[in-house]
Amino acid sequence: MRLPGAVASICVCSVLLSPRAAQSQAPGSIEVGTYGQVTIVDPAQARFESRTPLSLGVRGRMNLHRNIGVELEASTGTVDGAGDPLRRRYNQLVARGTWTIPVSDYSGLMLGAGLARSDYEVTYNFGPNLLIGIRTLIQGRYALRSDLIFNKLPTSGATEFGLRTGLQIVAGPFDGPTSSDRQRGNLTMQEPGSIEGGLFGQQWRLHPRWNLHSGRAIGTRIGTFVTSRSELEVEATYGRQTVARGNQPGSTGNPLPAGATFRVTTFAARYTYNHPVGSRYAVLAGIGPSRTSFEYIDHWGGSLLGGARMALTRDVHLRGDLVANYQAGPRVIDTGLRLGLSTVLRLGR
């Protein structure tokens, strides 16, 4: 028997909002996974010849609330170009927030928005990202996830549509020493799933190889606590540095004009451990991968961090760090000293 349209709509809404659905994730849990992706893009906009490039990607996700999460993903592939070289890398890097709507005990509808960066002929190609997807539980902690993504990139004018599918595995939640830390009353300790966001100013000490003066940069970070002491965070810095020696080579090996300035940007993801000291202080140690860009040339490597934080209130922290970024290709180290404010938002328990 066919249901009238209005009744059918009510039934669909009831399923979407059903409180029995088990697709929500525990605050503080982590999801990691891999995926394959096909991207549809106009070659004239993208400035390469491949219409539907294939990519492989990895994704990390932190669940902040039963239905809210943040994730970082990176994919890479190759495309055919018209210039030299004919084959070139095609990379996407995306950070987004998502909202999961339970559909049944085994599946959920995912909606997301964030910031994308696609690199091919035009680098620093940033723009907004939108996502709609389905996450389906397979067994235990394993799930299948399929997404449709949309990137609009103002720098090149390109519009990208991506279709992907892949496997996810859930780890956690990791309670760690949450109960004991809460009893001690240290204001720097947080519940799993808490978000830390902040801004900071930084003073660079750049390696002479880049032929750029050391200078100031600004940066932003966002992190989530997986235990009361352990945090996963990502950060980005931006600065413009002046050429140190005119008509001498820089990171590309080509001479740099005297007086010119170039962008120096870094992206880093790291695991950071906060060790409480007293009631308001903590010392920090962190490690993870990084990417530093000079004159539009990217260098991958690792990042080490040491620092300290002071809780001005439970939700506002003053934080200072010393960071060292190692670039594997040229085998050099850049260091930075930074100071900034962070705020903590608790969406979890």
Beta strand %: over 45%
| CATH T-level topology of the largest domain | Porin
Helix content, binned percent: under 10%
Distance separating the two termini: 44 Å
The radius of gyration over CA amounts to 22 Å
Reported CATH architecture of the largest domain: Beta Barrel
Supply the CATH class of the largest domain.
Answer: Mainly Beta
Explain the layout of strands and helices:
Layout: H1 5-16, E1 30-41, H2 43-46, E2 54-63, E3 68-80, E4 87-102, E5 107-119, E6 125-139, E7 142-153, E8 158-171, H3 178-184, E9 195-205, E10 216-225, E11 230-242, E12 248-249, E13 255-256, E14 261-277, E15 281-294, E16 297-311, E17 316-327, E18 332-345
Antiparallel strand pairs: 1-2, 1-8, 2-3, 3-4, 4-5, 5-6, 6-7, 7-8, 9-10, 9-18, 10-11, 11-14, 12-13, 14-15, 15-16, 16-17, 17-18
Fold and architecture overview:
By secondary structure, the chain is mainly beta. It folds into 2 domains: 21-171, Porin, CATH 2.40.160; 178-345, Porin (Beta Barrel). It is 7% helix and 62% strand. The protein has helices spanning 5-16, 43-46, 178-184, and strands at 30-41, 54-63, 68-80, 87-102, 107-119, 125-139, 142-153, 158-171, 195-205, 216-225, 230-242, 248-249, 255-256, 261-277, 281-294, 297-311, 316-327, 332-345. It has an 8-stranded antiparallel β-barrel with strand order 1-2-3-4-5-6-7-8. A hairpin with a 4-residue loop joins strand 7 and strand 8 (158-171). The model is unreliable at 1-22 (pLDDT under 50).
